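Hi L., both proteins are below.
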Amino acid sequence: MKSGVRALGVAESYRRDTSTLAGVVTRASRVTDGFVFGDCTVGGTDVTDGIIDLVERLDREDVRYVLVGGIALAWYNVVDMHRLHEATDRPVIAVTFEESDGLLESLEAEFSGDALDRRRERYRGQPPRRELSVNDQTVFVRQVGLPEGEARDVVRAFTPEGGRPEPLRVARLAARAADEWRGGTDR
């Protein structure tokens, strides 16, 4: 992959009712050249809208991929990868770092009625996750808008060491710092 290819990594951090979203533009050469911040509701259903807003406000035509740190951010606020792909016109890759049997059991333990039905339907509509070896570590990848092989190449190209792609690593640090700066309270 060419060193100038850019990806937007999106991660979050929360302490209370509002989750801080951080978007970080990183080149494949590991140079960070853009930040954008937003929020979504902890336990809500608005994370996809929050990420779309980040991409629109960032207004960077040079960003080729959107990487998201997980499929359910901010306490089960499930990302709709298909809608995100359509709205941003970019391939979307969700990367998780722990093995699991999925979220259905957890969703059923935490929600009921319409709240459960909405999350369960959105979660079931997402692509399956696949195990991927990166630098002797294992991550789990879902992708929309690009073939599995290209998603694998993107994750590996943006991961210089360890198993966390650089756009997601830096976005996670930025989200935590912004959340701490906000005091972890609602605005």
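That was the first. Here is the second:
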Amino acid sequence: MTSTVRAEVASGRRIAALALPALVVLAAEPLYVLVDTAVVGHLGAVPLAGLALGGNILSAAAILGNFLAYGTTGRAARRYGAGDRTGAVVEGVQASWLALAGGLAFVLVAQLLAEPVAHALAGGGAGGAQIAAGAERWLRIAAFGAPGILLALAGNGWMRGVQATRRPVVFVLTANLLSAVLAPVLVYPAGLGLVGSAIANVTAQTISAILFVAALLAERVDLRPRPALLRAQLSVGRDLVLRTLSMQLCFTSAAAVAARFGAAALGAHQIALQLWNFCSLLLDSVAVAAQSLIGADLGAGRPVQARLTARRIGIAGAVCGAGLALLVGLGAPVLPGVFSADPAVHRQAMLAWPWFVGLLPLAGVVFALDGVLIGAGDVGFLRNLTLISTLAGFLPAIWLAYVLRLGLGGVWAGLGVFIALRLVLAVGRTVRGRWAVPGSG
């Protein structure tokens, strides 16, 4: 039995079988955002900066809603590993109710707070006022896609949990390809500018949600809200939301500091950050495999196999991160020009680029081990890890960069401190193995 487990884990086939479809799903949304960034970037530095701020605020919905995907994957995977597929799908039903409620709440809050939040993040001066106006206009429309974002996250969560990874590929690609065609048409020939970008975003998110909800309905399980399961999901969600809130605080602070170095710096930060997000989600495909496999192994009472899988996952994350670093490094002369023709934006992007490239291998390990710990339900530790890295590492570094006027390179150095602290703490926790607790709940 032991030799079979070791051979299965060492081959990596189970990891690849789940990671590759997840990679397509995870890449589709940020790839669309990159297309949107390129489309808007050719309107000029100020519209690009407005998209940067508005998109950063909207991303709070997805980041805060990540527990709907990650938490649901772990819980559904444990039930699936224990032989209860129906129970795994019901976890998806409860997550979808939470998604709908959270999405509608985000729409309301965005309409109320779009103006003051955009102006606070953009800073003062005439340039800041122009950036804030564009961000507000974009956000008020794009916020209506929040329910769709969260419903798709919930759908991905339960499907990953039952290891049904092919249908999400079709759902997400269909929606994003349609909107990738729609965005340039609305922005340029239709003359809608930033408004056209926002409408294309809402279109993609709504279509994706409809497809995931249809798949859930086809399972013919009980659709009623179950208070006990909702409370359990919210308990997991509390820790994951605190974790993601601290990460969102990091990236929002980075955007705010970059904005104070000027429109070119903020535009360059938007380019580097969206490419970073794209690479991060590619790396997260390994973490998705970890969530499904670790959850299923522990649900089936196989902690030894779970620990062996965790080791393989960490190695796979490092290799993937190094490969992406090589590609991004080689692309430095051409990638910024895809998104903006402004020479000032190009110069600013090169200040962030060495940090961007150097952090990718470290991030590959960090994100992979995050997947291991989420699959094991060790979300309390992840919450504490991220809070420590934010409060003791990133925030002091980022505001020191502002005070010392270190520019965009200083902003990305702060992100480097954040990643390095997370790496040290996550590796230590994984090696000790206290997270490998068997059981279906």
